[in-house]
Amino acid sequence: MKDKSMLMIPGPTPVPESVLRALGTHPIGHRSGEFSQIFARVTQGLKWLHQTKNDVLILASSGTGAMEAGMINFLSPGDRVLVGSNGKFGERWAEVALAYGLDVQEVKSPWGTALNPDDFKAALEADTAKTIKAVVITHSETSTGVLNDLEAINAQVKAHGALIIVDAVTSLGAVSVPVDAWGLDVVGSGSQKGYMMPPGLGFVSVSAQAWEAYKTAKLPKFYLDLGKYRKDAGKNTTPFTPPVNLFFALDAALEMMQAEGLDNIFARHARLTQATRAAIKALNLALYAPDDAASPAITAVAPAGIDAEKIRSIMKKRFDIALAGGQDHLKGQVFRIGHLGFVCDRDILAAIAGLEASLRELGYEAFAPGAGVAAAAKAISA
Length: 382
Ligand SMILES: *Cc1c(COP(=O)(O)O)cnc(C)c1O
Fold this sequence. Notes:
One of its GO terms (biological process) is glycine biosynthetic process, by transamination of glyoxylate. One of its GO terms (molecular function) is alanine-glyoxylate transaminase activity. Its cofactor is pyridoxal 5'-phosphate. The protein is an alpha/beta fold. Helix content is about 45%, strand content about 15%. It has 14 helices and 14 strands. Helix 1 (about 15-25) runs antiparallel to helix 10 (about 245-260), helix 2 (about 35-50) crosses helix 10 and helix 12 (about 310-320) crosses helix 13 (about 345-360). The site of pyridoxal-5'-phosphate has 14 residues, from helix 3.
């Protein structure tokens, strides 16, 4: 059926009608007073979302662009960086660092497990000469559905004095990322994740300590030079032509988020996560991430003995529900249920009911009919 598509992937995420409507208006000049008013308003909204007084800069980029900007503006060729790696995105930040000639040391943990803060402690304490300039961490590792312990790792980074650069692409807007309270230097995110918006905007928050590092950082940059964005943000505009319609959408999305309130947003994501995980357990399928490190945005399921791609295919064909597949070596091994952004209890109930039917169609019957739905319903009413 036309227009009944349900996106349950970890980005792009579903977009509310008010945000879609905001996109469909005529563009305005980005040097106009009208644009500056919107710019000022969304900048305030972004600071609210990041729980910070730091600059939050807006780029026309995906989340990777925001992270690349967050790395290259504060470092020089040959600088030593520690990169946390326990999934696809952690690996990507190591690749970016290598592409720019940084001296990369990875702190690894197997896919499906959380990074160990003690590993960071050991690596940072061994660096008595303070040659490590930055630590790059993926907060919610979307490829595996693991939430890393950012607070504990950050405490080690603070004790050392290096900058912390955080990929909060699927944690911001889903779980508290208190930038000022924790002293997070650089935090990158993207519009198509927790923001309830289409893809196209990247966001980077920058602390005073990071701006100090910017003064002497020598990696090449032009379009992603955050100093340019900061300077123009002071005049409520951008250095280059921004996607003005995405700014309209951001304005509408932030208004919705502020009406819901941060605590309610985080509670909703926690509830959706618990409901999804309870349902998967009731269906006797394996969760790929442990309970104590569950991402608030995405749940990865390892349906041992069943081809995860077949489940995805039936979910799409029969119910028009898009689930995400496994990345790299996890392809066919896991499927991932996104519950990030504009997602409500009803969406989870529908997805689990569709999943039950799809599993039966594939001949998997190791659960009582309705067990998954009942477990999800119990978790959302608890
Ligand atoms: C989606 C995502 C990104 C950004 O990916 P883009 O495709 O560049 O927007 C970065 N990190 C994580 C953890 C993500 O989920």
